[in-house]
Amino acid sequence: MATEVSDLDVYDGRILAELQRDARITMAELGRRVHLSQPAVTERVRKLELNGVIKGYRAVVDYQRLGYGIRAVVRVGRAEYARVVKLIEQTPEVVNAWNVTGEDSWILEIAVIDVEHLDAVVTKFCILTETSTSIVLNVAREHAEVLPARRENIKPAIKKVTGR
Amino acid sequence: MATEVSDLDVYDGRILAELQRDARITMAELGRRVHLSQPAVTERVRKLELNGVIKGYRAVVDYQRLGYGIRAVVRVGRAEYARVVKLIEQTPEVVNAWNVTGEDSWILEIAVIDVEHLDAVVTKFCILTETSTSIVLNVAREHAEVLPARRENIKPAIKKVTGR
DNA sequence: GATGAAAGGACTAAACC
DNA sequence: GGTTTAGTCCTTTCATC
Questions:
Q1: Length A40 CA → C17 C1' (Å)
Q2: What is the distance, to the nearest Å, from the Cα of residue A69 to the centroid of all Cα atoms in its chain?
Q3: What's B128's domain CATH number?
Q4: Do residues A6 and A13 touch, judged by C-beta distance below 8 A?
Q5: Chain A residues 52-111 with CB within 8 Å of chain B
Q6: Res A26: pLDDT
Q7: Angle (CA) A54 B138 B132, round 5°
Q8: What is the pLDDT of residues A93-118, one digit of tens each?
Q9: Which nucleotides in chain C lie closer than 7 A to a protein CB?
Q10: Is residue B50 located within the same domain as residue B100?
Q11: Cβ of B75 less than 7 A from strand C
């Protein structure tokens, strides 16, 4: 049985917001914040986990302080799917890897120590196909909180004239 | 006082690995896993948080199950910095936003409900400058665990001949 | 850094609305 | 679906080795 967005009420939305902000708060504290008793939130969180709405909980680390001076986005052109997947698996510097539509087949986010390290990683992918590397200068937004989608919130690209 | 990577020992590495895998384990359990007493791990985690190595803890949610059928990467060309930042701030669909080097100035990761919604979001950025949108078909790796950088682990791009 | 003790708070399961 | 209660476990802080 798949979870429908409509199954998620206002309490679930608040719970998801709080846990995306701080995943280590206790169930008692979470209950206080969303105005539910502790057993009630515990049960809701358990269901959100079971339904796969919450996939897990992760510590967010500072790449810079872990010794990775450079973050980069590498776009990888068309290449044999299995070979790219295998190369990604062999490359721990790849933090995120998406197979995408368009001229580039893959978009990789990598964390490397310095330029020499960047060269070493990018070269591995250059051998397969053409690549394009962009170094991250600045992060405007990271891991934004995502709430259940509500169609009412969409602002149409071109506003319809409402004859008034 | 900034943290140096050299300050992090093998225990810190294990702690960071465990907390990136599951941020909600108790300190007692974390202690068991890394073979330290509970007060010892608690103190180490506190220091990692204070030093900014651990930036926080987040629940990872499933965009699909929250009603976002499409994930996409939008590359945004050269445009006035402040205007792009302002537009990102006004666009909750943007999950990650990086200012990068290269022809594209910005790389945005967005989560949208459907094609109509995608159109609405992309159009907002098209007004500023040229954009290029790639829809995510498949995720090969997501939020890989990142451990303290160790230069010894780097494999040089071109292996040096060691005259032997 | 480990161990042990004590107080406070959090979790679990049950009974109940 | 929700709350309350009671028992158990975890966490925190202290002291000591």
A1: 14
A2: 21
A3: 3.30.70.920
A4: no
A5: 52-63, 65-68, 71-73, 84-85, 88, 92, 94-102, 104, 106-107, 111
A6: 96
A7: 110
A8: 999 999 999 988 999 999 999 999 99
A9: 1-4, 9-14
A10: no
A11: no
Q: Report the distance separating Cα B28 and Cα B139, nearest Å.
A: 34
Mean pLDDT of chain B: 92
Q: What is the pLDDT of residues A17-75, one digit of tens each?
A: 999 999 999 999 999 999 999 999 999 999 999 999 999 999 999 999 999 999 999 99
The domain tally of chain B equals 2
Predicted confidence at residue A158, as pLDDT, reads 63
Verify if strand C has an atom below 7 Å from the CB of A28.
yes
**B57, B94, B139 ranked by CB distance to A60: nearest:** B57
pLDDT at A154 > cutoff 70 = yes
- Domain range enclosing A25: 5-58
**Packing angle of the helix pair A27-34, A38-50 (nearest 10 deg):** 100
Token pair belonging to B89: 């701030």
